[in-house]
Structure formats: C-alpha cells, structure tokens
UniProtKB/TrEMBL annotation:
This is Coproporphyrin III ferrochelatase. Pfam families: Ferrochelatase (PF00762). Pathway: Porphyrin-containing compound metabolism; protoheme biosynthesis. Fe(2+) binds at residues 179, 265. The keyword Disulfide bond does not apply. It comes from Planotetraspora thailandica. Belongs to the ferrochelatase family. It is found in: Cytoplasm. The keyword Iron applies. Keywords: Cytoplasm, Heme biosynthesis, Iron, Lyase, Metal-binding, Porphyrin biosynthesis. HAMAP family: Ferrochelatase (MF_00323). Its EC number is 4.99.1.9.
C-alpha cells in the first residue's frame, strides 16, 4: 500500500446511502431505510414501484463505484453503505483485517442535518462497535461550499441552461432542489439549528454567482416522505412549478444541489415527476447533472484529505428525531 508521507490517514472510506441492484432487493432495502421511521405503507409501496419501474436497480451503488474509479488518492479506498450491500459493518471488518488504523470517511452527503450527517456518524459508530479492532474513522468536513463542489455544479448548470431552447434561455429560472426533511429536523440541523436550509441557500447562491449573477433562483424541495400529519419543508418542486407558471415563468432549469449523484431520487422525482408537471404546464424544463465524477468534485476529495484533521461534530448537533413505529406495524 502506498501512503503519502504527509497523510494523516492510512485509508479512505466512502460512506453512502446504498441502493438495490435487483428487483428482489428493493423491498428489503426499503425496510432498512424506513425501520422505526413511521413512513406509511402506501408511501413505501409507491416508492417500491419507482424502483421496479427502473428494473429494481438504483443507480447509486454504480455511481459510488464510478467515483472510486475516478479518485486519484494515494490511499487504499474502501466503501460501505447505510442501507444496502456493501454494508458499512462488513467494510469496517475488512479494514480491521487489513490493518487499517485511522481512516478518513468521505460521506456522499454534503450538508448538515440528522439524515445527512448525524445518521452517518451513528452508522460509523455502530459499525465500529460491532468490529473488534476497528480503525479510528474521521468524517471529513461538510463540503457544500467547497470550490470543487460549486465549480462542478456551476458547469452542469450552464450545460442545462444551454440545453433549453435558445428563445427560453434568457428568462429561465434556476430552481435548486434538495431532499425535503421534517421541519423539526430542519430546525435542529447544525450547531445553531437551521443549518440544512442555510447551507443549501449558500451553495445555490455560490453556483448562481458563477453561472449568471443576475439570474433569479429559488430553492424547492423534493422526495417528501413520512406521514402527511408531520410537516416537512415546502414548497415541493411540483407545486413550485405550478406557482412559477402562474407567475408567468416559461422555462426552468432544476439543479439538484442537495445530492452528489444522479440516483433514484433525482431521476424519478425530477426527470420523471417534475418533468411531467412542466410538460403539463407547457414549460420548458431541463435538469442539471449532479456533481458525480466531475473532475473538480473528484479532486475536491483529495483536497479534503490534505486539510487538517477536522474536529468531530458536537454531540448535540443534528439530534436524532423521536423514532416512531410504522402506523400499521403490530
Ligand atoms: C436529507 C436526505 C438525503 C440527502 C443526504 C443523503 O444523500 O444521505 C437523502 C438521500 C437519499 N434518500 C434515498 C432514498 C430514500 N429516502 C427515504 C426516506 C427519507 N429520506 C430522508 C432524508 C434524506 N434522504 C428522510 C428524512 C426520509 C424519511 C425516513 C427517515 O426518517 O429516514 C426513502 C424511504 C421511502 C420514501 O421515500 O418515503 C428512500 C427510498 C436515497 C437513495 C436513492 C437511490 O436509491 O438511488 C438517497 C441518496
Ligand atoms: Fe431519502
């Protein structure tokens, strides 16, 4: 194994959400995602149909492999997921067997919140607790405002603007999107609360600044889950498209700034659902690619590894929501 003489780490661990890669895996994957989270059965079955409509294959695992292939780091690279194979615990066991002592963790989520930060920290802790001799694992910092992430998203936003009919380009609205989360989770995100939305707005502003500082932009939400009785961040992207249409906006570029690869939430909720809504409304619509394997996003990972070892998030930051049983669970 080759090690940069200055590296504070002896391995890089990619930590991701995970997704099914064959039809039989879809339901067990979904059960892992929603265990104890109170997601209604109807919602789960609807989401199952989204996955089955794509052959039971989520693109996210392959996107992790592609990112790993593109990385240029002088460290052995490992990969483990929260919800599907390769499971984080199995990966940490392999790392221990290989003699890794101190790994950096790059999580495929850029923002603060329970779902996008604390839950991954908990996943890492649980995996380490299950593995005798597990290495120390240091989560790299949030990178939502890193120049590499912003440059990648700006490039992809320009391409999506260019893909609009020329007559619609000038007045097109940029609509940034991210995964909705419960309002209560948004309120407790980050050390002072509100960090998820604040970081998303910061990233959107930085991208717009690079693409076209004079252009109007909005932030809308997608992929709402949970029971209807629990408030989640709004407006939903489809409702927002209707409002923009009422306001006379004729063209929209959606920019899924809240995600780092074109996984199922992006391709179903934007390329299928939101695109159908735009079509119904007669609006021109394109969608920017996520960072994926953009060279500046890939080199960002190396830059994060070279930074001073980050401090761990404060213990009270992004607390877990109250867990609730599924409504139909016995
Ligand atoms: C903030 C956030 C991110 C971004 C940060 C990050 O990337 O981690 C994210 C990413 C993702 N979410 C994903 C899939 C799902 N999320 C669900 C449900 C939920 N997401 C939530 C939040 C987030 N989710 C929450 C609060 C829930 C409710 C249940 C709970 O409290 O945990 C459900 C259950 C069914 C439903 O949608 O109702 C599914 C299937 C996939 C995989 C896509 C693929 O397979 O390609 C990815 C990358
Ligand atoms: Fe999600």
């Amino acid at each position: 194994m080759v090690m940069g003489s200055t590296s504070a780490y002896d391995a890089l661990l990619i930590v991701s959400f995970g997704g099914p890669e064959k039809p039989e895996d879809v339901m067990p994957f979904l059960e892992n995602v929603v265990r104890g989270r109170g997601v209604p059965r109807e919602r789960l079955l609807a989401v199952e149909a989204h996955y089955q409509g794509f052959g039971g294959v989520s693109p996210i695992n392959q996107q992790c492999r592609d990112l790993i292939d593109a990385l240029d780091v002088d460290l052995p690279v490992y990969w483990g997921n929260r919800n599907w194979q390769p499971f984080l615990e199995d990966t940490v066991r392999q790392m221990a067997a290989d003699g890794v002592t101190r790994a950096a963790a790059f999580v495929t989520a850029a923002y603060s919140s329970y779902s996008s930060c604390r839950q991954y920290l908990d996943d890492i802790d649980r995996a380490r607790a299950a593995v005798p001799g597990a290495p120390e694992i240091v989560k790299l910092r949030h990178y939502y405002d890193h120049p590499g992430f912003i440059a990648a998203m700006a490039d992809h936003t320009r391409a999506a603007l260019d893909a609009l009919p020329a007559s619609e380009r000038g007045a097109a609205r940029l609509v940034f999107t991210a995964h909705s989360i419960p309002v209560s989770m948004a309120q407790t995100a980050g050390p002072q609360g509100g960090a998820y939305e604040a970081q998303l707005r910061k990233a959107a502003a930085l991208v717009t600044e690079q693409v076209d500082p004079a252009r109007s932009w909005d932030l809308a939400w997608q992929s709402r889950s949970g029971p209807p009785s629990v408030p989640w961040l709004e407006p939903d992207i489809c409702d927002h498209l209707e409002r923009l249409h009422d306001d006379g906006v004729r063209a929209v570029v959606t920019v899924p700034i809240g995600f780092v690869s074109d996984h199922m939430e992006v391709i179903y909720d934007l390329d299928v659902e939101a695109a159908a809504m735009a079509e119904k409304l007669g609006m021109a619509f394109t969608r920017a690619s996520t960072a994926g394997t953009h060279p500046r996003f890939v080199s960002m990972v190396s830059e994060l590894l070279a930074e001073p070892v980050p401090a761990r998030c404060a213990a009270l930051c992004c607390p877990a929501p109250r867990r609730r049983p599924t409504p139909d669970a016995s």
